[in-house]
Task: inverse folding
């Protein structure tokens, strides 16, 4: 059984928080791209629509890599979170376009 405050619990909490941060950034980026009518009509809305999802994901991956310091090398953690975001993004896009793809993306 895991004891509260042990190093294993702290590591699992850090990795879980970092993973949920990256997954949330991917999903929020999809919301920004799928619902542009929620953004303002002027230049800030256009900038948020074009740059927002990528910038949000880059900041989330940077923060996730910095949270999980001490487990692996920085390059390994960066690759892990980039692959995780690509996987979550492809699942989100696949679910959004599932009716038009007729389950051919699986």
Result:
């Amino acid at each position: 059984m895991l004891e509260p405050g042990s190093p294993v619990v702290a590591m699992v909490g850090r990795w879980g928080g970092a993973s949920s941060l990256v997954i949330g950034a991917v999903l929020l980026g999809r919301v920004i791209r799928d619902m542009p009518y929620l953004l303002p009509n002027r230049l800030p809305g256009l900038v948020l629509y074009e740059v927002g999802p990528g910038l949000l994901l880059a900041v989330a991956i940077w923060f996730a890599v910095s949270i999980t310091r001490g487990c692996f090398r920085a390059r390994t953690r960066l690759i892990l979170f980039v692959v995780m975001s690509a996987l979550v993004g492809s699942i989100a896009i696949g679910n959004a376009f599932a009716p038009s793809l007729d389950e051919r993306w699986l």
Q: What stands out?
A: Helices lie at 7-34, 43-67, 74-96, 98-101.
